[in-house]
Amino acid sequence: MENFVFQNPTRIVFGKGVEKDTGKETAQYSRKVLLHYGSGSIRKSGLYDRVCQSLKAAGVAWTDLPGVVPNPRLSLVREGISICRREKIDFILAVGGGSVIDSAKAIGIGVPYEGDVWDFYTRKATVKQMLPVGVVLTIPAAGSEASNGSVITKEEGEYKRDAGGECMRPKFAVMNPELTYTLPPYQTACGASDIMAHIMERYFTRVPAVEFTDRLCEVTLKTIIHNTPIVLENPTDYDARAEIMWAGTVAHNDLLGTGRIGDWATHYLEHELSGIYDVAHGAGLAVLFPAWMRHVLSVDVRRFAQFATRVWDVEYDFASPERTAREGIRRLTAFFRSIGLPTTLKELGMTDDRTAEMARKCVDRGEVGNFVRLDAAGVQKVFALAR
Ligand code: NZQ
Ligand code: ZN
């Protein structure tokens, strides 16, 4: 096991009706906030009104900044930075999913920084401070409600890039599973795939003797695998929604990565897909993860066979551990398909071939992955396996 420091300061406020506490939580930090949200789901569901009432009751004033889209754009981040500076706003309340939260974080690191906020995403600058961010989560998926990262798309050049820093973890996350009842099935499925990907990125490690976190990863994966079909069948099953929502946060709050070195290549490959084709992150991952697995399988067949037997209940084939391992990948792919996700680039809608360009861009900040280091040629091989 590797040495590690684990500190996740995000306060989780979880359960039925907890959005009524949003104002109280926010008032501990500020009385004048930027209320940041997406393209309409929170107004349709009535959440917007409930959040506003709660802010009002706690004496918190706000300025609205709606319009965050999936794969959140740099242009709106820049607008948010200007508003916060002009109106002397010192807190951002993100109401929505990963895209809204990531946009809020980007605004939060941009306001106190004198240069261009994109510098953080190109690694030209390191994040040292962020305006405090609070979250009301409406979709379990990205884990951004307790993570230290933000992923933003720069329209010019179709770049989707991440920035990170420990100060980027939200102060609190208000999480009511009932808020996820209105999710379209495809978004529920994309969320499940992203949560699973966050666990698998950590699970596939070359660090030996990580049994405890292996087991934590396995049960968290099983929780998603068990509960996703339940909520697709019955979107208002509170208990199943709650299991997924909490598992989604734990999957990416770094607990499952303690003592291990995760891989993360698949995430970087997916960011290239989303950057150009504007696909849902979880859908891109469903296509790429099995392809990545097939590409790197031979490096540690034992670990893949363990994944197959413990997560997918594959019977161990003593004559051929590789067959066991491949059966695990096959069942992962079949699971994605069963919940309505694409599993090939073609199904994802990619009809042209820009894989060479994507591979080149993917490694422009250096090779990706730790389980196996991938250069541009390696990245392109994974894209080829995903066709
Ligand atoms: O904009 P609205 O109208 O709210 O609609 C959203 C959006 O269209 C809708 N939605 C959200 N909650 C809903 C709802 N519709 C009905 N009812 C609800 N309760 O769902 C759509 C997707 O929302 P989005 O925020 O894009 O989803 P997600 O949470 O999957 O976030 C994806 C983004 O997070 C990034 C991804 O790259 C992607 O850009 N990630 C961020 C990470 C981080 N910061 O730690 C890690 C992840 O690996 C990921 O890369
Ligand atoms: Zn992800």
**Basic shape:** globular
Biggest sheet overview? 6 strands, parallel
Separation of termini? 36 Å
How many strand segments?
Answer: 8
Q: Which oligomeric form is depicted?
A: single chain
SS-derived structural category: alpha/beta
Using the CA coordinates, give the radius of gyration: 20 Å
Bound molecules: 5,6-dihydroxy-NADP, zinc ion
Could you state the order of secondary-structure elements as H and E?
EHEHHEHEHHEEEEHHHHHHHHH
Low-confidence parts:
none
Proportion of residues in β-strands: 5-15%
Mean pLDDT: 98
The total of helices stands at 15
Description:
The chain is an alpha/beta fold. Helix content is 48%, strand content 11%. It contains 15 helices and eight strands. The chain has helices at residues 22-27, 41-44, 47-57, 74-87, 98-110, 118-122, 185-203, 211-233, 238-250, 265-277, 281-296, 301-312, 321-338, 355-362, 376-385, and strands at 11-14, 32-37, 61-65, 92-96, 133-137, 149-154, 159-164, 172-175. The strands form two sheets. Strands 1-8-5-4-2-3 form a six-stranded parallel beta sheet, sandwiched between helices. The chain has a two-stranded antiparallel ribbon with strand order 6-7. Helix 7 (185-203) packs parallel to helix 9 (238-250), helix 7 runs parallel beside helix 11 (281-296) and helix 8 runs antiparallel to helix 9 (238-250). The longest helix is centred in the middle third of the chain and has 23 residues, at 211-233. The protein is globular and about 70 Å long. It starts with 10 loop residues before the first strand and ends with a helix.
